[in-house]
Design a protein that fits this description.
By secondary structure, the chain is α+β, with helices and mostly antiparallel strands. The chain is about 50% helix and about 5% strand. The strands form 3 sheets. It has a 4-stranded antiparallel beta sheet, sandwiched between helices.
Length: about 450
């Protein structure tokens, strides 16, 4: 063989190996479309390089130059630090009254004094709220995806989270252990990781992190929130890719409840450990927050608030659940970050908006809101109303987000390019649509869940 033919053979084998590896990974992840396309491209690669090796020398030289140019362009696209100038969002200039959020309003019982008092003060919420109350509801018989067997799992998860409600705070040891803030920051981060947290960050607690009034959980409904801790520890737990990709069906809410309970348990343990060191600490868990967890997590350096209104972490995207511990334990905050690559990717991707069954996610650019922030804002009423119709907490946006792919070498190579190059971000969004589809279909659930859906 000539030198040109050897080089063509090497580049062909390299391309084929990459496509076959991606096909194998895709099939393992149940992304059958991506697997089929990769295999098809592999066959085309074999055919193309076979033709080139048998072609005249002039054609081989021209093809080699073109292939080298394509490979070089790919490397430049991946490594060249092309960036876009994006303006960070200012922090909110006001606090949020927890009573006004959709999850607190969903707990209002028609006919009660609390119900009448709330809608007397906020009549603009009553029509949409009464409309979603006309639907079956979350985990309720008659909803589109309800299954009486599978529903027992999220019911158990939410039961555990509710059982932890009164354990979020407690007595403080009189024996105060003293270490440097650096040592304590290192300890609490590793302690959270030991119990199952994926990413952990620390920030100073800010007024806009804190709800103004209690709307859920322990304490008196409507009472002003009094929380004067100095620091906040935010952490994530990973949600199963296999379970979430079946969203909006039952496995998604099963995983959601499971990881809310996991995050809640970790937060309760971490807060209790800090109180044992002699410092006040409170866990903030699902249904019993005093803080807005995504805002705390953002300021703790864990990610950015993306198009779908969820925290987007660089490693797992929105496929996480959050919890927070606030404390007066002296700690070292993590340096503030502004991850422009995430916001830039969300600006061009729009896949979550395209698949949203309730059309609650905006397609446009970030906009300025009355609280002074620059962000995307989902229509929470549309989103929650869909939940009450299907009986799950949906998760379709999370399932299709390109950042939600598993934390593997192949996907992390794409994440590396996305982080370093705005050009690569556009290419990555296009490739994700090509291999996975602009509007991907939900995956089949694991076999043991499919079996539970069948009547015996």
């Amino acid at each position: 063989m000539t030198v040109i033919e050897i080089l063509l053979l090497i580049s062909g084998l390299f391309t084929l190996l990459g496509l076959l590896s991606f096909a194998l990974v895709s099939i393992q992840e149940k992304h059958n479309r991506a697997g089929r396309i990769s295999l098809l491209l592999g066959l085309l690669t074999i055919a193309l390089y076979t033709i080139l090796i048998l072609a005249p020398t002039g054609v081989q030289i021209a093809a080699s130059i073109l292939i080298a140019a394509i490979f070089l362009a790919g490397i430049i696209l991946l490594l060249w630090p092309a960036r876009k100038t994006l303006v960070p969002s200012p922090p909110p200039d006001k606090q949020v009254d927890e009573r006004t959020i959709i999850f607190a309003r969903a707990r209002l019982e028609p006919g009660t004094e609390r119900y009448h008092n709330y809608y007397r003060e906020h009549p603009e919420h009553q029509p949409v709220d009464d409309a979603f109350r006309a639907h079956p509801g979350l985990l309720t018989t008659g909803s589109a995806f309800y299954n009486e067997v599978l529903a027992t799992s999220p019911e158990g998860g939410f039961f555990l989270t509710e059982s932890l409600r009164d354990a979020v705070d407690g007595p403080i040891s009189a024996n105060q252990v003293r270490r440097s803030p650096e040592q304590m920051a290192h300890f609490v981060k590793n302690l959270a990781g030991y119990h199952g947290a994926v990413d952990v960050g620390i920030c100073k607690l800010q007024p806009y992190h804190i709800y103004s009034h209690i709307g859920r959980g322990s304490g008196v409904y409507g009472a002003p929130v009094t929380l004067d801790h100095a620091f906040a520890i935010a952490f994530t737990v990973e949600m199963s890719h296999e379970m979430i990709t079946s969203a909006p069906r039952m496995p998604a809410v099963m995983e959601s409840a499971h990881q809310y309970a996991s995050a809640g348990a970790i937060a309760v343990i971490l807060a209790a450990a800090i109180r044992s060191l002699g410092y006040p600490a409170r866990a903030h868990i699902d249904g019993n927050y005093r803080v807005i967890a995504p805002l705390v997590a953002k300021d703790a350096g864990l990610g950015e608030i993306g198009r779908m209104g969820l925290l987007m972490t660089p490693r797992l995207g929105p496929r996480v659940r959050l919890a927070v511990v606030t404390t007066d334990l002296p700690l070292i905050p993590d340096p503030p970050t502004f991850e422009t690559s995430v916001l830039d990717f969300c600006t061009s991707c729009k896949k979550c908006a395209a698949v949203c069954p309730s059309q609650a996610i905006p397609f446009g650019d970030r906009s300025t809101h009355p609280d002074g922030t620059l962000r995307w804002k989902i229509d929470a009423e549309r989103c929650y109303t869909y939940w009450t119709r299907v009986g799950t907490d949906c998760g379709r946006c999370m399932a299709v987000c390109p950042y939600s792919h598993p934390d593997t070498i192949m996907h992390n190579l794409v994440r590396f390019g996305v982080k370093h190059s705005s050009n690569f971000r556009r290419a990555a969004a296009w490739m994700d649509d090509l291999f996975y589809g602009k509007i991907p279909l939900p995956h089949k659930p694991p076999d043991w869940i499919a079996d539970a859906k069948n009547d015996s």
